[in-house]
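Q: Here's a chain of 262 amino acids. Please give me its 3D structure as C-alpha cells.
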Amino acid sequence: MTKYAALICYDGTNYGGWQKQPNTKTVQELLENTLSTICRTPIFITGSGRTDAGVHAAGQVAHFSCMPIASLSQLRYRCNSILPSDIRIIEILPVSDNFHARYSAKKKIYRYHLHTDPVMLPFHRLYTWHVPHAIHLEQLRDLSSLFIGTKDFSAFSNEGHQKPTHHSNIRTIYRIDIVEEPGGIRLEFEGNGFLYKMVRNITGTLMDLLTKKIRKEDMPEIFSSKDRRRAGKTAPPHGLFLMQVIYPEDGPIWESTSIKLL
C-alpha cells in the first residue's frame, strides 16, 4: 500500500461540510465514493480538518492509502471527470507512511471576506458576509490584535463544553491581516490550529466590538471565562475559506501553493 496526499478545492455552498455524516451530502463522502469507484476498492480519506456546512476551501489537504498508482495525473483527471464541478482535486502526491493530513500540519491559513458596500452584487452573496456599514481599518486592526498570541480560545469554540477534560483549547494565532479588496475587506488568519467555528466566532466578535455591542475592556474577562456565551455572534459560514495547510519540509510540496479567489 502507498500513501498519497491530495490538494482539494471546493465551493461548500451545496454541502453539509467536509466530514462524512448521515442525511446530508458532504465533500469527504463524494471524494471517497469517486476514489473507490476508480480504484475498484474501498478508499477512506482523512482531511486536515473539517469545514462546516457552507464553508469553502482553496487548500484542503487529505490523505489516503491504496495500491501504487501508475499515473497520478490520470487519477486526478478521472476523479475530476466524475466529481461535481464545485469540487476539484488540484494535485495528488505520494507521501511518507508517517504523514497525516491533520496531525502533521504545522499551520493553517483561513480567509474571511466581508462586503461593506451598501449594496452587494448578487454574484458575491455566496462568498462574502454583507456588513453594510463603513469599517475603520485601523480600528479593526487594533481590535484584531486582541486575538494574536497563544491563548485559551474556549470562549470562541462552539463545542468547548463538550470536550473531554484532557482536551486543550489553547491555540496560537500568529497574525490577523486586514486587507482591502473590491467592495470590502478580508481578514486573513494564520495559526497553528483552529477550534470548531473559532474563525467565525472571532470574526463575529470583532464586528460586535466595532459596533460597541461588546466593550474592548471586557475582552480579558471574556477570554478568562472560557464561556462561548460571553463572546460575540458567529459570522455566517459562506464568507470563510480554508486557504492553505502548511506542513514541515518533509511534507507534501505543491507545485501550485496558492489559488487566487474572487
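Q: Can you summarize the key feature?
A: Strands lie at 2-10, 46-47, 56-66, 87-94, 107-115, 129-130, 149-152, 170-181, 184-191, 240-246.
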